[in-house]
Amino acid sequence: MATMGQTRERPEIRFHDEISSGWETLHQSRTFKARTAAMFGLVGNADLNGQRWLDAGCGTGTLSRLLAARGCDVTGVDASSEMIAAARSHLADGTLAGRLTFQQIPTIASLPFPDRSFDGALCASVLEYVPDVAQCLAEIHRVLRPRGLLLLSIPNRDSLLRRGYRLAHAASSRVSARPLFRYLAFSKFDTSPAAMQGLLRQHGLTMLGSSFAGSPLPPALDRQPAVGTLINILARRDD
Description:
By secondary structure, the protein is of the alpha/beta class. 37% of the residues lie in helices and 22% in strands.
């Protein structure tokens, strides 16, 4: 469990503690629903029933519950105590509680699970906030079973819209204590599909497919490489 001292030293965790109360509402917005649909679209109609999945950086458990609805037993982990508290609060609200477990951990760069524990892993908009992307991928590879799936989303380096958001954030930061797109103060890592494919390969993971999403624009534009603010990726542990 992350200590108070660790949280103070890692402002990205404190930021996610602060926004936890509105996270579920945000996921109900059209933009977030579209990006979730685009990411899960990479899995298609694959039969996940009975599989054990890890949600690495689960937030309030929104996507964990979607996996559970497809028949998965899901363990969700997050460094934010407030996000985990919110995720647990939803367990009493539905019929999926028996398939869901939520646990606070200091970082996904050190996962408290044995080797080859999971059939699949989900890591949605998390790697951008960690200081050690390579170590996180190494840990995810370690806990995946051979041919286990990794479904992730990561900021798109080539998105003109994300670049615009960064400019707006930088400009508003000079005049306001609460600048536009506050998450960009903590969202550091971005990439391209080709670069991410190479990074995944270095850690024993093969990219099976990718797509773009994340912007508030219509799907025909959002799915373009120069527009979508996120890259969705489906990969597999092949060894």
